[in-house]
Design goal:
The complex is a heterodimer of chains A (434) and B (308).
Chain A: E1 21-22, E2 28-32, E3 42-43, E4 50-51, E5 56-59, E6 68-69, E7 74-83, E8 89-97, H1 116-125, H2 138-142, E9 152-157, H3 166-173, H4 175-189, E10 193-199, H5 205-214, E11 221-227, H6 236-244, E12 259-263, H7 264-276, E13 282-289, E14 295-300, H8 305-311, E15 320-324, E16 331-332, E17 346-351, H9 367-371, H10 378-386, H11 390-395, H12 406-410, H13 417-433
Parallel strand pairs in A: 1-14, 9-10, 9-12, 10-11, 13-17
Antiparallel strand pairs in A: 2-8, 3-5, 4-7, 5-6, 7-8, 13-14, 15-16, 15-17
Helix pairs in contact in A: 1-4, 4-5, 4-7, 10-13
Chain B: H1 16-38, H2 40-63, H3 74-84, H4 92-107, H5 120-131, H6 133-136, E1 139-140, E2 151-152, H7 155-161, H8 170-175, H9 187-199, H10 206-221, H11 226-231, H12 235-242, H13 253-273, H14 280-288, H15 291-297
Antiparallel strand pairs in B: 1-2
Helix pairs in contact in B: 1-2, 1-3, 1-9, 2-3, 2-4, 3-4, 3-5, 4-5, 5-14, 9-12, 10-12, 10-13, 13-14
The chains are: A alpha/beta (434), B mainly alpha (308).
């Protein structure tokens, strides 16, 4: 078990029993070419081209990059810039729906017959990235660097952010496929031991998962780990600490302690790509918070957030904010024209409660140190950042901060610590590249 | 355009003001006890201290051109704690000077809440002690056994001077029926308040336990009754309510233990070897100076630190 973290009210009962609905494909999708960590994909279609559902529209542009596919069938209406959460701008391919939803030729493969390299190559061509939020290309993760060895694969079913229930629904509704995804990943990497980590508030999944595991004949042993409900249990490093009791070295990767972690929906996407040839063109996300009809929705990549909010009965008011992701790490957006991308785990409508006047001086209560899962000293770091002492921030390891938000959450003086650390990181990076 | 805010988008309900008012609530039983034992003298001192603390805040607002912060109860805490460490018979104008200095000199001059180096109440008490040595060391007996003599010696004073004098029973000392500073006497009610703060997770066990244990160990080695040393003087008040002041104590658990041990050693040395009968105030203030140093050497080891 990791040190620190906070107990949060999970607000999951709002949407946890809502069966996933298919969100109707919109008239127009906006598919950014940079939905992932790494180099944006290179467009391979031009205005006026007709595309099928699942057709490649942006190709891999490097080792750390990802392919992009059309999520509907229709006509390319243009290649324009679009906003992404966090103020990023990406080139996007706009596709108008022809309403026919014609898919590309389906395939039917048995993963047992595939070689690891073949699986990895399918994953790469299917544009699969980590769907927990960071959107790191999965094929890169599956390729273990020379000189390193992975012994374990951990499936991250913690979904530790309050409000979000998409992964939970996927585990209930697509249990077999998720578990199959885990076996495929194990085969691709060549490990014999898999874990599924879930938080204790999802204990009801254990019999389902256990039953699904028995359906597959494999030399891989899969163990289910029920972990305490403590945020950020689903942080990659902290999940590894809880499951294997190993600490990923500072600046290192999970593979440095012999394991690789995948999100639930990533496993499902890998399974669908490998077995049925379906690239990553849709995902399940939770729409919740101050919403008339909270839902778990299977949504096409590129669907504008505004359409989804409309569908769920959200009126945009002055005193509410729209957050992409969970309440602890999610990003508030300034416009609802932003499309759903591969890493969009939820759309939250929350009260706009935070006012800068509430910020007070640090009283050194030490609660932030108690809760920091990276064992940093947020109180001191915050003061250095506030006074723009970037070298001191660096000395006090601001770069190890995972921006989980525990410190800002717990702070009685309501200090915007995460805000300050994000700033410090940017400044340190700037100074480093000069 | 709408203002955007950074994650996290939810926050705990704890606020500085809630913490301060919780400390006030924790001090309430002992406050009532002080009025019960020392009568209206105590009540007057308490009121004067709180008001003068607030005056200090308002004056510094004008002098330093600082935004007057919302009334978060921190002046009430300082005022109450200052009153607790003054003799009940102190002239009210002296108490008033103490309250004003606690806020204006010790706190605001160093940058206001969160930036002071010394515990405001104890620093003000120390200033008063060196300025008015006579008034600060004259103690009245509790109403219940006040006969005709106005002043009397505290239990620690009796031990220190070696003069004959009736030591109160340990039980009387535990409930607080003994001469001493206004709020330090009722160990029972102070501990009840402290338990409240521990349950509310406002203070942790580290400082009080390491402080009191150190005093117990050293006084036992010196051949004195450790129970007497816990009950006498301001040890319990100091260990739970003064040494635990967030701003002037170390920020990490390890640092807190070092701080507590340091306080315990100095308190014991002053009590056993020094010329003052009591040493809680000076030991906490002395250790306050070491806080930045202790913090520096007790930083937690970061997650995934690479062994060198």
């Amino acid at each position: 078990m990791f040190q620190g973290g906070v107990k949060l009210v999970d607000f999951k009962e709002i949407s946890k029993d809502k069966v996933t609905e298919d969100f109707p494909a919109p008239e127009k999708v906006i598919i950014p070419l940079s939905q992932h960590t790494g180099i944006p994909s290179k467009p391979v279609v031009k205005k006026g081209d007709t595309v099928l559902k699942g057709q490649l529209i942006g190709e891999n542009a490097g080792f750390i990059s990802s392919a992009t596919h059309s999520s509907i069938s229709g006509t390319v209406a243009g290649i324009e810039n679009c906003s992404l959460p966090g103020g990023r701008i990406s080139t996007a391919i706009i596709i108008e729906n022809d309403g026919k939803d014609i898919p590309v030729e389906p395939v039917n493969r048995n993963w047992q017959d595939l070689k690891p390299e073949e699986i990895i190559s399918i994953v790469r061509d299917s544009g699969i990235v980590g769907m927990g939020g960071a959107a790191f290309p999965s094929a890169v993760k599956l390729t273990i660097p020379k000189g390193k060895k992975a012994d374990y694969v951990i499936l991250n079913g913690c979904e530790c952010e309050p409000f979000l229930t998409a992964d939970y629904r996927v585990m209930i509704e697509e249990t077999d496929k998720v578990v199959e995804g885990l076996f495929i990943i194990c085969k691709a990497i060549g490990v014999k031991k898999g874990y599924i980590g879930i938080e204790s508030n999802k204990r009801d999944l254990v019999p389902l998962l256990r039953e699904a595991i028995t359906k597959f004949v494999s030399e891989v042993v899969v163990e289910i780990k029920v972990l305490p409900e403590k945020y950020p249990q689903g942080s990659e490093k902290h999940l590894i600490k809880s499951v294997l009791n190993k600490e990923v070295p500072s600046g290192g990767l999970p593979v440095d302690v012999g394991c690789v972690v995948f999100n639930i929906q990533t496993a499902l996407a890998i399974r669908d790509a490998v077995c049925e040839g379906i690239p990553l063109i849709e995902r399940v996300l939770t729409v919740t918070g101050l919403v008339r009809n909270p839902k778990n929705l299977r949504t096409r990549i590129g669907t504008p957030v505004s359409k989804i909010l409309e569908y769920c009965g959200v009126e945009l008011k002055e005193n509410t904010k729209i957050v992409i992701g969970g309440p602890m790490m999610g990003i508030q957006i300034h416009t609802t024209d932003i499309p759903v991308i591969k890493g969009t785990s939820g759309i939250l409508v929350l009260p706009q409660e935070f006012l800068p006047e509430k910020i007070q001086p640090c009283i050194r209560c030490g609660k932030c140190i108690e809760v920091c899962p990276m064992r940093l000293v947020p109180a001191e770091l915050g003061k250095y950042a506030e006074n723009q002492k970037w070298e001191r921030c660096n000395e006090f390891n601001v770069s190890d901060c995972i921006e989980c938000g525990c410190c800002s959450y717990i702070c009685p003086a309501k200090r915007p610590l995460v805000d300050l650390f994000k700033w410090a990181k940017v400044e340190i990076r700037k100074a480093g590249t000069k | 355009m709408k203002e955007l805010t950074c994650s996290p988008h939810i926050h705990s309900s704890e606020t500085t003001a809630k913490i301060m008012w919780s400390v006030v609530i924790a001090l309430l039983p002992a406050t009532l006890a002080s009025i019960y034992f020392f009568g209206l003298d105590a009540l007057r001192v308490i009121i004067v201290c709180i008001i003068s603390c607030y005056i200090g805040e308002v004056v510094s607002h004008f002098v330093f051109n600082r935004k007057l912060k919302s009334f978060d109860g921190s002046e009430v805490v300082t005022g109450l704690l200052l009153a607790f460490v003054l003799p009940p018979s102190i002239p009210l104008w002296m108490a008033g000077i103490g309250g004003f200095l606690a806020i204006f000199l010790v706190k605001e001059l160093f940058g206001g809440i969160g930036f002071n180096i010394f515990n405001p109440a104890l620093a003000a008490r120390s200033i008063l002690t060196v300025s008015f040595p006579l008034e600060m060391t004259q103690f009245t007996a509790p109403l219940s056994y006040r006969v005709d003599a106005i002043t009397t010696a505290t239990p620690l004073g009796i031990i220190k001077e070696g003069i004959g004098g009736q030591l109160p029973s340990l039980w009387q000392m535990f409930i607080g029926n003994r001469p001493g500073c206004l709020g330090e006497t009722s160990i029972l009610l102070l501990v009840i308040g402290a338990i409240f703060l521990l349950c509310r997770k406002i203070i942790t066990w580290h400082i009080p336990v390491s402080y009191i244990l150190t005093v117990v160990v050293i006084t036992s080695i010196a051949g004195q009754n450790p129970i007497f040393h816990i009950l006498a003087g301001g040890l319990v008040l100091g260990a739970f309510f003064m040494a635990t002041d967030y701003v002037t104590s170390p920020i990490t658990p390890k640092g807190k233990i070092i701080f507590g041990i340091g306080c315990g050693i100095i308190t014991s040395l002053i009590r056993l070897k020094g010329s003052y009968p009591e040493g809680v105030a000076y030991s906490v203030i002395f250790m306050n100076m070491f806080v930045p140093l202790i913090d520096r050497y007790t930083l937690p080891k970061k997650f995934g630190a690479i062994k060198k």
